[in-house]
Design a protein that fits this description.
This protein is α/β, with parallel strands linked by helices. The chain has 15 helices and 8 strands. It has a 4-stranded parallel beta sheet with strand order 2-1-3-4, with helices on both faces. A 4-stranded parallel beta sheet has the order 6-5-7-8, with helices on both faces. α2 runs parallel beside α14, α4 packs across α6 and α7 runs parallel beside α9.
């Protein structure tokens, strides 16, 4: 099982633990991730509100690089990267005018041939939950989490085609497979504020604070995410949320790959738990998932 791997900017910087844990899990399961050479930023959320052609040309440049690798399947972990790559493909497949303009900018021909998957999709729908359960060396029982999908993983549904728009379940199913109890809650796809984290922080504090409050009220001991923007807003900004709204949240925000890695017996240090602002180690020790020594 081999894929062209698009890490994107966040996984090479602020979300390094997502990159590390993804590669560790893939290696343990025999999934080969070959990083796309000379990849560039996908444009994330700023490009498409700045210049529409730029928002298409950037991801298409990466898809062209993957095509040259003789790989017709690209894997992304960042929900924003996944979303922008999928949207670019949609335009290149169906919009002849934009296709011609983008191809002229890049000086190459592309028609949307390279399929794009999220790593969550690969684990659940390609590798398969039955196969994964057979590789689990330790069930992570006793931990209650809120699976948080955010905006970009499932929207727009006609493009992402990943999961149910209102009630996504792939991450929940994955957590159940490794012994974790996912709570039922209504904020699975609420916006955390995304890239407003730097420009309109008050919006992020309000939206992310509401998400944390709902997860707490429903009994979650941690949140599980599949997006570095979501992780950053909910983890990095948690102290600011506490101060502004007089809260006392201390809720770890974990990547799904980190928990899968633990279930596969991968050493915690290799999964990047030490990189979080809200330290998840005490909770994992309290639940008996990690040794107390």
């Amino acid at each position: 099982m081999k894929y062209a791997y698009f890490p994107g900017c966040s996984l090479h910087s602020t979300a390094k633990e997502y990159d590390l844990s993804t590669k560790e899990v893939a290696n343990a399961l025999g999934i080969e991730l070959i990083e796309i050479p000379d990849w560039v930023c996908c444009g994330a959320t700023p490009a498409h509100i700045t210049m529409h052609l730029l928002s298409l040309a950037l991801p298409v440049k990466n898809l062209l690089q993957a095509k040259k690798m003789d790989s017709y399947e690209v894997v992304a972990c960042c929900a924003a990267c996944f979303n922008r790559l999928k949207i670019a493909n949609k335009f290149m497949e169906t919009d002849l005018e934009h296709r011609e303009k983008v191809n002229a900018i890049l000086g190459e021909q592309y028609k949307g041939e390279v399929n794009v998957r999220h790593f969550l999709d690969v684990l659940v729908n390609v590798f398969g939950l039955k196969n994964l359960s057979e590789r689990v060396t330790k069930k992570l029982t006793g931990l209650k989490v809120a699976c948080y999908y955010g905006c970009l993983l499932v929207r727009p549904p006609e493009v992402t085609k990943l999961d149910d728009l209102e009630e996504p379940h792939l991450m929940d199913d994955l957590m159940k497979t490794i012994g974790i109890e996912p709570i039922q809650w209504p904020y699975k796809t609420e916006c955390c504020g995304a890239s407003f984290s730097l420009t309109k922080t008050d919006i992020v504090l309000k939206l992310s604070g509401d998400i944390l409050q709902m997860a707490y009220d429903e009994g979650a001991e941690a949140l599980v995410v599949a997006c570095p923007l979501c992780q950053s807003n909910l983890d990095l900004r948690q102290g600011m949320i506490n101060k502004k709204y007089n809260k006392n949240f201390n809720i770890p925000i974990l990547y799904f790959t980190q928990l899968v890695g633990l279930a596969l017996g991968i050493e915690p240090k290799k999964l990047g738990f030490q990189k979080h602002i809200v330290n998840p180690i005490p909770l994992l020790k309290e639940k008996g998932i990690l040794s107390k020594t």
